Amino acid sequence: PEDIRVYEFAEAIKRPMSEVIKVLFDLGLMMTKNDFLGNDEIEILSEEFDVEVTIVDPKDAFNYEEDLAQDIEKDPDATKRPPVITIMGHVDHGKTSLLDAIRKAKVSEGEAGGITQHIGAYTVQQNGEAITFLDTPGHAAFSHMRQRGTDVTDIIVIVVAADDGVKPQTLEVIKIAKESGAPVIVALNKMDKETAQPDMVKGQMAEHGISPVDWGGDVEFIPVSAKSGMGIDDLLENILITAEVLELRANENAMAKATVVESSLEKGRGPVATVIVQNGTLKVGDYVVCGSSYGRIKALIDENNKQIKSLLPSYTAVVVGLNEVPASGEVMMAMESDKEAKEYAQKRHEYDRHIELSHSTKSTLEDMTSMI
Ligand code: GDP
Ligand code: MG
């Protein structure tokens, strides 16, 4: 539609812009180089100049994000990978505390006001099997990833404080979980409290379509206490059982593909991005593109602040070496060369610019209409 400008069309068909403008003029269309062409105009111009025009979605111009799910399903070299878990729930129901209890470290104590400031992503071992956890503050990063279609979550754990029950954000999370199609496990937290009423919570959740297995439904409700550590093993075991059914796979030898869950500009390190690997093995020295940023991986730093050489599927680390800070939800792909990575990044830059231009034009048109 209004995505192609007159000068872009002229460039594409390799004809002087003045000729294109003249043809349009002869048709009674007063257009200048920066005006956008509609489909009808493009059709007429194509006939006039005897060129065949295929309108390509600019998304295809930087389509380095191949349909991975399909690739992996067909990939005979894919092997089992660990599950990636997102813990969600109403504020103060114990998401951070639960993540702490799970990795037996104390993150929340250092947090300003007890509010999670950023996504943490880390992997724990349960009976020799790995599980990666994501922490989603306010679900913003999670929603962002879903919008981009790059959600990495395999299983959603909904935390509900057993003494507080279903709250507005619990309902939001239920909605997100249903939309995502990811299997759900409910962690009934704060079971150490005398005021805990697990059956009341089960009833409330069942009302919203999350039916407990022991009530004939299909969702596991695991009583836990982030405070005492009770039920944590049970929760992890249930995650592994759920993951088994999902048959999660990846090919460790494929070109690496990862997703950014968090990013920032760090003093001394420059742009950094916490990523989760979806496929392949991400290595120090890899050339990568990540949206409009690119670079060569200088260092991979794991959750214990240790430098590692490579990162397997479903594992997470901070990537150092990009030239710009990528957005969360952006896909990182390993490339054959620096040149290739740079080319993709540049195409993406152009695409982003293009999107901005068409947006600004649209809003200008809207502004004008509203003024009339
Ligand atoms: P978040 O907002 O969901 O991340 O919740 P937090 O993990 O920050 O926990 C909110 C409050 O509940 C904090 O004061 C925690 O100490 C407390 N809390 C979390 N889990 C438990 C639990 O299992 N038992 C008790 N008694 N308190 C808990
Ligand atoms: Mg928190």
From TrEMBL:
G-domain: annotated segments: 83-231
Record's subcellular location: Cytoplasm
Domain Tr-type G: from-to ranges: 80-247
Binding locations of GTP: 89-96, 135-139, 189-192
Function: One of the essential components for the initiation of protein synthesis. Protects formylmethionyl-tRNA from spontaneous hydrolysis and promotes its binding to the 30S ribosomal subunits. Also involved in the hydrolysis of GTP during the formation of the 70S ribosomal complex.
The family this protein is said to belong to: Belongs to the TRAFAC class translation factor GTPase superfamily. Classic translation factor GTPase family. IF-2 subfamily.
Name by which UniProt lists this protein: Translation initiation factor IF-2
Species whose genome carries this gene: Sulfurimonas hongkongensis
Name of the gene: infB
